[in-house]
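Limitations

Structures in this collection are predictions, not experimental determinations, and the ligand pose is part of the prediction. Treat each record accordingly. The example that follows, with adenosine-5'-diphosphate as the small molecule, is included so readers can see exactly what is and is not provided: the inputs are given verbatim, and the output is the predicted complex.
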Amino acid sequence: MSVVPAQAVAGAGPRPDDGRAAPLAPRARLLPALAAVYRAQLSRARVARIPLLFVATFQSVGIMVLLRGVVSGGDPARSVVSGSAVLVVAFVALNLLAQYFGQLRAGGGLDHYATLPVPPAAVVLGAAGAYASFTVPGTVVTAVVGCLLFQLPMAHLWVLAAVVPLSGAALSGLGAALGLLAPRQELATLCGQLGMSAALLLGVLPAGRMPEAIGWARDLLPSTYGVEALAHSFAPRPDWFAVCADLGVCAAVGVLSLAVATWAYRRAAAR
Amino acid sequence: MPVCAVRDLVKTYPALRGRRGAAQAPAVRASDGITLDVRRGEIFGLLGPNGAGKSTLVRQLTGLLRPDSGSISVLGHDLVRHPERAARLLGYLGQESTALDELTVALAVETTGRLRGLGTREARAERDAVIDELGLADLAGRALKKLSGGQRRLACFATALIGERPLLVLDEPTTGMDPVARRAVWAAVDRRRAERGATVLLVTHNVLEAESVLDRVAVIDRGRVIACDTPGGLKEMVGEEVRLELVWRDRPPLDVPEVAALGAAARTSGRRWTLRLPADEARSAVAAVTAGPAFAALDDFTLATPSLEDVYLALGGRAEGLVKA
Ligand SMILES: Nc1ncnc2c1ncn2[C@@H]1O[C@H](COP(=O)(O)OP(=O)(O)O)[C@@H](O)[C@H]1O
Ligand SMILES: [Mg+2]
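Predicted complex:
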């Protein structure tokens, strides 16, 4: 029988991963963790962001009032109203979320999550979901006010129930990714604001009169498809196929941008 | 087997390229060949001034930072190869709290518990228990960023405790805390050690804290461990006396016999008395002046452990940055 002390076998150093390794505590599962992050983020947003939601809504309503002098009825009116409604989502989900993740990364806040056994997707989806659902009241108010201003039918406003979460997913994924990938916090804020300006200019202004290059940029912006879906629903007889197609693109972009955001989070958390 | 074994750990932060005109920040070797063992059930401290490399070391132990070379084994797991396991082995309190700032204390603790894998009910029950234990009940409904620095720190400490782990890694847990909060922290740490056999690794730059609560200390300077022993053992390297400083509001209460006795031995400068005493006498002197009429006349006191500081200096450390309060 060998009586060589374990120490001698192992050499001077410790022997990692030997048979006596302590059991690992269980991981947090995806859905409960997502729910916990969502709840915490929603409460954060409630406390800190209500004034900003007012600003967002005010901005959108203001734009519609301004454009009422220029645009009267028809296609342009529809795209102004739907663009302004989705702009609220862009303001909160893209701009504020980019800012938030930029801040979190710069201030070492990601460490808190990185030292908990939580799936990265739960952190990103929870935050994105909270910011997106936080935009609901502002979007609805803007859409209703817009319908009144431009005398558009409100019968199909329920389409918002799909437009907000889907464009919310797409824009908040983009916002989170920008915030997490930007090398510096100020750049994250800047990117978020640029993204929102793009959503404003490309989403609200009627598409017909734009130069071709801008039309391309418009097609690349995820919020465009939410805007179009909503605009279609204001038609006297909505083209439901077009609505569904636009929402489908929105959903696909949403999945993609959330996946990118999750990847960006992993990258930022594991420095 | 040690709970935490570190061998020849090296971590260099790369040089930052200066921007137009700005000076270039040189590379910093923040961990310069660190080797240490933390034993089971121990309260082990890392002591050193700001910039010594304490946070860099614990960030490697918690899987947040990848070492350039060397090995880290925590509870038998190789954390260099599997940094993601750290989250399932240890509870960590970092120096920052930005992730939680806008949450209420209760929600911050509960959410952290959920993310540490607790179910809803468990998380709530543990949340209430931890909040009670730390005396945070009155603050439970307030947002962290509305609290004072010390209160916020205590709330963050609560998040490190929920969802029990066999190892706690705490980076300057008591910064900014008042004595009541500090006592709550040490009581909670001690309870986890005594009742559940937990091991605690904590960072401090407070010499008094190191003296009074740690079982063993590694003194860190410029990324190296320059000494590692019990506080008493380190102290013996340079003698056994401690320094007690008393500052009186106006005149010392010489009618209190203990104070009169101390006065005879003190070096006086204005309202300040400085005494060099054996540790046990210093302890009873503190007890005497922090009670009754003597306490009413006392403006401030510090029990410094010049020995630890002197050990530090004798070993080539830089003095500035160590706190003695
Ligand atoms: N992210 C970083 N990039 C570059 N240098 C860093 C970084 N973090 C810390 N340092 C440097 O590494 C050294 C050790 O820092 P740190 O571990 O934070 O010390 P302590 O926690 O003991 O105060 C310091 O000189 C500090 O300036
Ligand atoms: Mg530090």
